[in-house]
Design brief:
It is a single chain. By secondary structure, this protein is of the alpha/beta class. It folds into two domains: 259 residues, Rossmann fold (3-Layer(aba) Sandwich); 67 residues, Substrate Binding Domain Of Dnak, Chain:A, Domain 2. Helices cover 38% and strands 14% of the residues. The strands form two sheets. Strands 2, 4, 5, 6, 7, 8, 9, 10 and 11 form a nine-stranded mixed β-sheet that branches. The chain has a two-stranded antiparallel ribbon with strand order 1-3. Helix 4 packs across helix 5, helix 6 packs parallel to helix 7 and helix 9 crosses helix 10. It is globular. It starts with 30 loop residues before the first strand and ends in an 8-residue tail after the last helix.
Length: 383
Amino acid sequence: FEGEHALLMPFAALEGVRRGCRAVVSAVAGQVRPSPGWLGRVVNAMGQPTDGKGDLPPGLSPYPFRNAPPPAHARQRVGAPLDLGVRALNTFTTCCRGQRMGIFAGSGVGKSVLLSMLARNVKADVIVIGLVGERGREVQEFLQDDLGETGLARSAVVVATSDEPALMRRQAAYLTLAIAEYFRDEGRDVLVLMDSVTRFAMAQREIGLSAGEPPTAKGYTPTVFTELPRLLERAGPGTEGQGTITGLFTVLVDGDDHNEPVADAVRGILDGHIVMERAIAERGRYPAINVLKSVSRTMPRSADPAYLPAIMQARQVMATYADMEELIRLGAYRPGSSAEVDEAIRLHGPLEAFLAQAKEEATGLAEGYQRLEKILPPPATEN
């Protein structure tokens, strides 16, 4: 608002709108009515179907696009570990039901493929996918090739492509959480996959600059950093008798800079972060997850106590190899100089093979722990 005037922004193109047209305020436009019939469907940011399969059956209760999260004192604690089907994540960054994690990656390192693996393999009741600011060409590829019929059958997909107005791109993120909140209130364990939070922030920046907000770091406006926690806090455990919303939100790191403003802000809000690195992708190991830089804030409590020593041992071995990698590749390290480094060199190949996983492959929590334990030498026993 500016004095007696209200600043309005369009959700769509303004062709045909002229001075003197009537403007009507509608509360209905700010809410949506999800139902079980939304599973297997693709909608735009306003909740309108775009898949050519007919109208969506409306639910009984309206859900605001911009809903408030449950009160902190009424929320349950995070639940049991959630089987994501990706052994690198299950083992080293175990995610619990109701936890919120960020997937931090540059462009072209396999982020979309990892999302498709999660959508197909995760042991959740319902999946809600938000494609915010995606290229139009990639939407059908993701739906048909990556997600497939099996993944789509238990998913609701919200799409706002990069050519749509900033309000629509922002609205797509809000709608994704509104649909998830409906299924959570029904007692379901929901997984939200959003690609990406960065494009949500860019849309909010565009809106803020148009409204006259002052730019701050990298041009982002103050409301960007106000809206991020409002969006991300909507994921998490519900109240007594409700289900959970587990959130996996991708963050596009500008120029592979993991400390740029949006990445830094999101990392401080979420309950953990998964780091994907270009160097790992370039050597052909997918998913290109750097487990040493990835953190789940529910670890070690969320990991199986019986396998926790193996997890810590594997991390130590990988850290030793990472410290000495340059010397090893240059041939400057002499075998036999350090038993610890020699063991790290011997186990490097098997551990890399363990972290690599084909797109069609799924590995459960227990299976991943057992496979890791077989790679590592038995712990030394004291006499």
